[in-house]
C-alpha cells in the first residue's frame, strides 16, 4: 500500500512541479506540502485528475507554531472513493496573509474554513460568508492560538438581577499559586506542605 501511495505522490509531484514542496507517506496516508499561492491549482488537479479523483473534502484544520515566521499550518484531508485513497495537503501562512478559499471546488469547505478563521484568525480570500462559527458574536481573540490565555478575556454569566446574559472582563479571584502535588507513588506523608502553619496557630491559641 505504501509503495502505491509513493508512486501516486511521485506522479502528483512530477505533474505539479514546483507547486509541491515536499511529499511523503506518513501514517498510511500520502502527505504533500504545497506553495500557498498554488492551492487552488493543486486542489483542482487532485479533484479532477483521473489518477487522483479526490472528490471528497473531509476536513480543513489549522495548527499553530508560534515561533515560526509562517506560524500557521493549514491542513486539508481528502478522500478518493474511486481509488480508495486518502491524501493530506498542507501549506503555511502567517498572521497577515490570507489563504484562497476552496469553497468554489468543495462546498464542504465553507464551515471548516469558518472554523479555522474563528479558532486561529486565518482569513480566506473569496469566502462567501467568513464569520465566526463556534464562538459568540463580539468574541475577542482566537482560542486555539498558542498565545491565547486559558482564562480567555471575557466571561459570560447569567445576571439574576438583570434577568439576562452579561459579558464581563475576566477577573481572577486570587493570584496564581504554585501547588506542590505529591506523587502517589512516593507514599503519603504524615504532614503535607502547609500543615505546619495550622499546628503553629494551634500552639499560639494554647498559650
Radius of gyration: 26 Å
Counting DSSP H or I runs of 4 or more residues, the number of helices is: 4
Q: Which spans of ≥5 residues are poorly predicted at pLDDT below 50?
A: none
Overall shape: it is: elongated
> What's the number of extended β-strand segments?
9
CATH top level label of the domain at 2-133: Alpha Beta
State the CATH superfamily name of the domain at 2-133.
NADH:ubiquinone oxidoreductase Nqo5 subunit
Strand and helix order: HEEHEEEEHEEEH
**CATH architecture assignment name of the domain at 2-133:** 2-Layer Sandwich
Question: What labels would you give this structure?
Answer:
single chain, 207 residues, alpha/beta, Beta Polymerase, domain 2, five-stranded mixed sheet, two-stranded parallel sheet, 24% helix, 27% strand
Amino acid at each position: 500500500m505504501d509503495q502505491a501511495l509513493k508512486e501516486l505522490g511521485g506522479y502528483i509531484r512530477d505533474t505539479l512541479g514546483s507547486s509541491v514542496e515536499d511529499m511523503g507517506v506518513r501514517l498510511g496516508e500520502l502527505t504533500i506540502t504545497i506553495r500557498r499561492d498554488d492551492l487552488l491549482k493543486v486542489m483542482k488537479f487532485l479533484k479532477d485528475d483521473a489518477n487522483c479523483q479526490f472528490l471528497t473534502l473531509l476536513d480543513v484544520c489549522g495548527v499553530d507554531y508560534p515561533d515560526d515566521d509562517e506560524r500557521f499550518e493549514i491542513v486539508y484531508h481528502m478522500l478518493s472513493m474511486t481509488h480508495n485513497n486518502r491524501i493530506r495537503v498542507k501549506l503555511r501562512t502567517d498572521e497577515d496573509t490570507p489563504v484562497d478559499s476552496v469553497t468554489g471546488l468543495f462546498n464542504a469547505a465553507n464551515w471548516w474554513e469558518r472554523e479555522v478563521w474563528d479558532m486561529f484568525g486565518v482569513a480566506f480570500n473569496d469566502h462567501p460568508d467568513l464569520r465566526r462559527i463556534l464562538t459568540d458574536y463580539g468574541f475577542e481573540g482566537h482560542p486555539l492560538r498558542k498565545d491565547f490565555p486559558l482564562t480567555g478575556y471575557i466571561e459570560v454569566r447569567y445576571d439574576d438581577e438583570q434577568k439576562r446574559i452579561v459579558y464581563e472582563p475576566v477577573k481572577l479571584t486570587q493570584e496564581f499559586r504554585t501547588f506542590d502535588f505529591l506523587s502517589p507513588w512516593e507514599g503519603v506523608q504524615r504532614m503535607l506542605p502547609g500543615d505546619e502553619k495550622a499546628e503553629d496557630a494551634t500552639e499560639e491559641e494554647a498559650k
